[in-house]
Design goal:
Helices cover 48% and strands 7% of the residues. With 318 residues, it is an alpha/beta fold.
């Protein structure tokens, strides 16, 4: 899988620093044998990883990346470069047999007389056996071999893995930068960055603004959730869209409720400290539930949402 979701690395200003750092290494022939791209895909981390793989395999790389014209670039763009290997999770994990096969392939001579490059997508999904199988190759990858490890959550990587990789510098963009980028890319004037933590990052936020067919966009649904949660907290019972919430929407809905409670806390900072603490605890409980929902077999979503509304009313009516 070569990541291509409609965005170009060169149009993501917050990736300028890591992109330039890698290209400088490439131009000076000081590229390390293993790079960790610990940048969430919603910020372009996976796009950057593919960009790096393409540039490092290019036979005539430019200061802005791959030339796009050489035989290696053409093979890469066609998705059949014989010296480019990609690993993705098999289910929820990257398994040891996948890594063993990769390591075996990396011992072979490059077919195009250039680099051999392996890209491990979402490397935080390496199980312990797979991670241990990768260690020796990370230590001794062989000549002209580059391993790129992308991870949305690099803190979840085994320390023995991350310590053997050079990490690219990255500073998360400010909301102001993201707002300006969205204005240029999506031609919108309103500030939609309030839901960044719900959707994950600027790339997924940009996608959320686009409706598919006759269905409302994800952003429109989030706006409706925010309105309906505010009404529900006021009335004490679920309103409108919250009455028909689906399994696919529950996490989005709860994250919007969390943001709304945080907003209430900030707006009512003069409120009784005990009530403030209880609302804060409720918000923390809701976020904890968001983390748990992916592993819970069945949940009464309507009952869950109603319980949070009732708990809020009980807190604020004291």
């Amino acid at each position: 899988m070569v990541a291509n979701n409609g965005f170009d690395v060169l149009t993501l200003p917050w990736l300028d620093m890591p992109r330039q750092a890698f290209l400088t290494q490439l131009q000076s022939h000081q590229i390390p044998h293993a790079q960790l791209v610990g940048i969430d895909s919603a910020y372009g981390g996976e796009l950057l990883s593919v960009f790096m793989a393409r540039a490092s395999m290019c036979l005539q790389p430019k200061t802005v990346g791959a030339c796009g014209l050489c035989k290696s670039c053409q093979l890469f763009d066609a998705g059949n470069h014989p010296d480019f290997y990609q690993i993705e999770a098999d289910g929820n994990q990257i398994k040891v047999d996948q890594i063993r096969e990769l390591c075996t392939r990396l011992t072979a001579t490059a077919q195009q007389s250039g680099r051999r490059v392996a890209l491990i997508h979402h490397s935080e999904r390496l199980n312990s056996a797979a991670a241990n199988a990768l260690l020796k190759t990370l230590e001794e990858p062989g000549k002209d071999t580059l391993l790129l490890l992308h991870s949305d959550t690099p803190a979840r990587l085994m320390a023995t893995i991350s310590s053997r990789c050079q990490r690219l510098p990255f500073v998360a963009p400010s909301k102001a930068l993201i707002k300006n980028w969205l204005m240029q890319q999506c031609q919108i004037q309103e500030d939609v960055t309030w839901c960044l933590s719900v959707v994950g990052g600027p790339l997924t936020l940009a996608k959320s603004l686009v409706a598919e067919g006759t269905q409302p966009s994800r952003y429109q649904v989030l706006l409706q959730f925010r309105k309906d949660w505010a009404q529900s907290l006021s009335s004490g019972h679920l309103c409108a869209s919250l009455l028909t919430i689906s399994e696919l929407q529950i996490i989005d809905a709860l994250k919007v409720l969390y943001l709304l409670l945080r907003q209430i806390l900030l707006k009512n900072s003069h409120q009784d400290a005990f009530i403030q603490a209880q609302i804060g605890n409720l918000a923390a409980k809701i976020m904890g539930m968001c983390h748990n929902l992916s592993t819970m077999p069945t949940v009464n979503y309507l009952g869950l949402c109603q319980s949070y509304v009732l708990e809020y009313k009980e807190i604020t009516n004291k």
